[in-house]
Design brief:
Distance between the termini: 104 Å
Largest sheet: none
Order of helices and strands: H
Shape: rod-shaped
Helix content: over 70%
Structural class: mainly alpha
Length: about 70
């Protein structure tokens, strides 16, 4: 029985140490990574929107060029 109590106390100490010194930095790293991914996602959408606008402008310019009489 004393072996069990000793192992239980040792386990509790290990859990406390991990909870106290390992979990907070890991949570911080996870939060930073989530923010980085969110920022990357937002910036990745911008070029797609700009490409769509540019394609519309190109189509309009082509239509206008076709509508002009050639000399």
């Amino acid at each position: 029985m004393s072996t069990f109590i000793g192992q239980l106390v040792g386990f509790a100490v290990i859990v406390y140490i991990i909870w106290r010194y390992v979990v907070p930095p890991v949570r911080r790293m996870m939060t930073n990574q989530q923010e980085t991914c969110a920022t990357s996602w937002r910036t990745a959408r911008r070029p797609k929107e700009q490409l769509a606008k540019a394609e519309k402008a190109h189509e309009k310019a082509v239509e206008q060029a076709k509508a002009r009489p050639s000399r």
